[in-house]
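User: Can you predict the 3D structure for this chain?
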Amino acid sequence: MVTDFDLDNYLQAEFVEHHKVFHATRDAVREDFAALLRACVDSVRAGGKLIFFGNGGSAADAQHLATELTVRYRKDRAPIAALALTTDSSALTAIGNDLGFEQLFARQLQAVGRRGDIAIAISTSGRSANIIEALKAARAMGLVAAGLTGGEGGAMKSLAKPLLIVPSTTTARIQEMHIMLGQMLCGALEISLGLA
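Assistant: Here is the predicted structure, written as structure tokens:
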């Protein structure tokens, strides 16, 4: 065991940073969160779907949020059409092997996306090549290209609208805000669609 580690100070510093980012995020994303909710409501009402994607921890968030919508969030209700592009190991490995990792999500969007669907990219940096290529594909296909990111927004800033940017450069804090915002989107979508 590490003897010079001050756990109390560590916990205090983590909570303080989380608290600071939490409050900054609440102020930073209000307008874009409302725009994303409106776009999602419009899409679902018109028979569209929400398509989530990301790498690493963001891939886990994509799967988590798609599941909350297709199964339930607060209570049993009609399913909301949503999927994550991070779950099909055969597609992921074939695309990575045959077309390159940069095409991982763009190729799947081209197969399952339809005009009016919402493509929701999740990336802490906003710079991942496969995220950028997917947003370009979404825009070209007439999907709403939206996203969640952090810092200054990276290349996503010019490709995703609405874009929820967590004002932090700490990956853990950005990821904490992403899953919170995603779950808030699920709850607000249920309410807005009259399902809650």
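The radius of gyration is 17 Å. The beta strands are 50-54, 82-84, 118-122, 144-150, 163-166.
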